[in-house]
Amino acid sequence: MMEWDVNIDGWIIAAGICSAMACALPGTFLVLRKMSLMGDAISHAVLPGLAIAFLITNSRGVLPMFIGAVIVGILTAVGTQVITRHGKVESGAAMGVVFSILFALGLVLIRQAADHVDLDPQCVLYGNLSQIPLDALDGGVPPAVVNVALALLLNIIFVCALYKELKICAFDPQLATTLGINANVMHYLLMVVVAVTTVASFEAVGSILVIAMLIVPAATARLLSDRMGTTLVLAVIVAGVSAVLGHLLAFRGPGWLGLDPSVAIETAAMIAVVTGVLFLITLVFAPRYGLVGKWYHRARLTLQIVREDMLGILYRWGEHRPGEDIFKEDLLSAVGRGTLARIALGSLQRRKAVESIGSDRVRLSATGRDAATKLVRDHRLWEGYMATHFDIPLDHLHEPAERIEHYLGDDLSEQLQKEMGDLGEDPHGRKIPE
Amino acid sequence: MRVSARSISTVLMGALLLGIVVAAPAGAFGQSDPSTHRSITDTRFDWPTWSSVVRVATLRDHNTRIVVLGTTLLGLAAGLVGTFAYLRRRALMGDALSHATLPGVAAAFLITGEKNLTYLLLGATVTGVLGVLAVLAIRQSSRIREDAAIGIVLSVFFGAGLALMSIVQSTSTGNAAGLNQFIYGKAASMITSDATMIGIVAFVVVTGTILMFKEFRIVCFDQDFAASMGRSVVLIDLLMMGFVVLTTVIGLQAVGLILIVALLIIPAAAARFWTDDLKAMTMFAGTIGAMSGWIGASFSALLPKMPTGAIIVLTAGILFLFSMVFALRRGILPEAVRRIRLRRRIALQHLLRAMAEIEERTGKPTPIDSAELVNMRSWTQRDLRRLTNRAKGAGLLTRKSWTELELTKLGRTHAQRVLRNHRLWETYLIEHADIAPSHVDRDADEIEHVLSEELIDELERALEAGQDIPPSPHDDTPDTARTMP
Asked: In this predicted structure, what is the pLDDT of residue A221?
């Protein structure tokens, strides 16, 4: 197995972390503004900008590269707008037209320049991360790392300085305009930042994998938080973790998989895979927006409804046949039997709302009676309210009340009580409990 | 317009097929040798010789014929299925699909250990479809929107593909070299069996599109009606998507997975400029796709150093730009010409009406002083001079002296018709739309130019008007305050 060398792996990880974090910042705004594909488009489209800069200046100078990329980045945004407006072409397709043409142009130019500058179509795919440390074997900082670190710094400044403006534009461009923020300028500024970041990251991750850095950590963060600031911080953290894990897996992964340890996996590709895995994990397990979380909330709500239905049935049973306890089986079948009904009954018994009488009968306890009374009161008050205020026939009152009784909060319940409290009886002639 | 659009594309299609059939043998593909002895720092562009251009253009060489036939058929199929993907707003879904094929190709190679095209394409299909399903699943099950979902699937699947590729490259003993061509495409290495396969797919796609055209149209344009058809719409949608997958996978080798989406989108988007009719649009898209394939492959044969996929896409891009600027139906230039023409006609009619109004006030056909005329509207002297010159050129008026103008007979007929239209509309607005007489002039001013014969007939009937010009409902004397915009 290859030895871990701080001088080499350290620089690779540093470059990976910086470019992933630098991408995550503007990426968050792209995802929020539903412009992820613009990031996709720009990252493809900066290629001819880079190539032309190479061809003109005969060097890999930083400045010409940036200028070329910024121009092409803006060109993409403008071109998409022009095609959308003049051609009445849908914006997604317009983007596709622009970026695929520019990418093709870039490829041709790069092929033309390939003999000349050490830049080739492979580099476009996954950058040149493993070569980065070789540029500074004498102990200095590799220029590629400087580039991405600068881009990161620039993006942090950009986000901090224009945080409020970016936030407003992301959520409500119209409001931004009324507040005197030029949403259009912000749009193009964001595009420029995306283009610059893409260029800075070109050497580290190439021009296609950079899409993973732009969008995936931001989307992951979006599943974890509703707050702008938190989303940004989370996106940056996810990006950093992906970069570290990505290199680790690329380096050690083949050994762990039982492959020949000399197998080299491209670090940049592995970083993209890790961002995807982290996204998948978040998609499933995120507390609020994850699949499991959503499933859990739904299951809890379902359980609560069954429980409350049971309480209601027990109360009404008591009204009809005072003194007689209900058979457990009858109660279960009244709410549809099944495991859910059993779980609900079990949970009621654990909460001491229902107590067993003998082996096969149950009845409400004192606490259960209070809860059931409140439910039935809400139900009947609601029926009364609807009968007075809406023109609903008698036999149609029960169902909406049956649904609403689980959702009436304390406020609404009190209000109902205040308004309809002296009703005494519901429209069906049943007593409204106090 | 629709007929001409159809006939143009039919002619183009015919010429294309004829060219493929008539092509004569002999010649060379990939004549110029990339390994010529040149300095590494030489970025000179190798221009192909004239004789090789002629050879490629006339399809003399067997190889060239295979490659051109293959890419042309691919372009045709991609143009057809792309039209429906474009109209269903799934253009960029194709991008996710094509990028997602890479891990399949690499995995198929890792598993089978050989470069059997069938397995590779099978693997590509499997992961490609998985990618599309992943986009749908992410969109369906979370708050992540489709655009981000496409970006996620595209980049992560592609990353996984590259990771697998790097494993392949460092483990296998050199026979994996051909896998890279799936990324950028290498049409020049196309052999007869590849072209045959593309031909079969193109045949399936073309026949399928023709047979299912009505169903596709409904799914694209009449969502409500389609929804009422229930299950069958899902099947039609699946079939459409299946065609896209088929075309994408088959095109990987030739164009490469990064750029194949361009062949789906660009011909369809370009065709949209030419026509509003779906059938014509499909034919245009097929033709443009086929032309891109043909011309692109020919160029690529002349410039063997260049990636074929990129050249084909650039050709399609040029056709797109041409369509965007020049297409008769919706192109920017014809549209601009139409707008300018309309503006000129309106200006001319304003001039004529102004003269008719002056004549009406004086009560007899007289020469009109241009100083009086300039007060009628917000014209500058220069505008008026240019306008009168144009009217004079059209034989609508004559110049009596330096400042005096007089309507010709033709001009007077025109002028009185415009004035009559104007007055009819004003009267109509006052009598039927309950608008104050002082407010009708502006509206009539705009509508007088576009009133059709039928509408005029209807107005006459509604107002029971005779053939004469109705009197003005408001004060017509020139008033700078009123004519100010």
From this structure: 94
Minimal CA–CA distance to B159: which of B113, B109, B99? B99
User: Tens digits of per-residue pLDDT, B238-282?
Assistant: 888 899 999 999 988 888 888 889 999 999 999 988 988 899 999
Q: Say which CATH class A6-286 falls into.
A: mainly alpha
Which pTM value belongs to this model?
Answer: 0.80
CA distance A167 to chain B (A): 18
B300 pLDDT band (50/70/90 cuts)? confident
Contact B151 A36 (CB under 8 A): yes
- A276 shares contact with chain B (CB less than 8 Å): yes
Query: If residue A345 lies in a helix (H) or strand (E), which one and from where to where?
Result: helix A338-350
Q: How near does any CA of chain B get to the CA of A47, in Å? A: 13
The one-letter code for the residue type at A171 is: F
> Token digits for A58?
């005969």
Question: What is the number of CB-based contacts under 8 A between chain A and chain B?
Answer: 222
Given a contact cutoff of 8 angstroms between Cβ atoms, the answer to whether A215 and A66 are in contact is no
Chain B contact present for A103, CB below 8 A: yes
Which residues 297-316 of B are in CB contact (within 8 Å) with A? 305-307, 309-311, 313-314, 316
ipTM exceeding 0.95, yes/no: no
Query: Span B336-483: which CATH code?
Result: 1.10.10.10
Tokens linked to B288 = 């443009």
* A97·B314 Cβ contact <8 A: no
Closest CA to A147 of A57, A251, A18, A263: A18
CATH superfamily, domain B2-30+48-329, is ABC transporter involved in vitamin B12 uptake, BtuC (1.10.3470.10)
**Nearest 5°: phi and psi at B313?**
-65, -40
pLDDT category of residue B193 using cuts at 50, 70 and 90: confident
Q: Where are the domains of chain A?
A: 6-286, 294-364, 369-423
Instruction: Tell me which architecture the domain covering A294-364 has in CATH.
Output: Orthogonal Bundle (1.10)
Q: Between β-strands A326-327 and A361-364, what pairing exists: parallel, antiparallel or unpaired? A: antiparallel
Dump pLDDT digits (tens) for B362-381. 877 778 888 788 887 888 88
**What pLDDT is attached to residue B25?**
34
- Annotated domain spans of chain B: 2-30+48-329, 336-483
Tally of CB atoms within 10 A around B211: 10
For residues B388 and B368, is the Cβ–Cβ distance under 8 A? Answer: no
Say whether A219 and B89 touch across the interface (CB within 8 A). no
Shortest distance, CA B298 to any CA of chain A (angstroms)? 15
Task: Split chain A (434 residues) into runs of 10 and give each run's mean pLDDT.
Answer: 66 89 93 86 86 76 80 86 79 87 87 63 73 69 83 92 88 83 84 88 83 93 91 94 90 71 78 93 88 89 87 84 79 80 84 80 82 85 83 82 81 81 75 76
CB hemisphere CA count around A197 (13 angstroms): 33
Cβ contact B262–A88 (<8 Å): no
Domain spanning A369-423: which CATH class is it, in words? mainly alpha
A363, β-bridge pairs: A355
User: Cβ(A127)–Cβ(A205) under 8 Å?
Assistant: yes
Alpha-carbon distances of B275 from A87, A332, B89, rounded to whole Å: 12, 66, 18
Tell me which H or E stretch contains B245. helix B231-255
Q: Is A169 left (phi over 0), alpha (psi -120 to 50) or beta?
A: alpha
On the CB side of A421, how many CA atoms lie within 13 Å of its CA? 8
Please choose, from the candidates B188, B186, B189, B127, the residue with its C-alpha nearest in 3D space to the C-alpha of residue B159: B127
Among the residues of A172-227, which ranges form H helices?
A: 173-178, 183-205, 210-224
Distance from CA of B144 to the nearest CA of A (A): 7
Place of tokens 């429209």: A427
pLDDT in tens, B203-232: 999 999 999 888 888 888 877 777 777 667
Cα dihedral sign, A96-A98-A99-A101 = positive
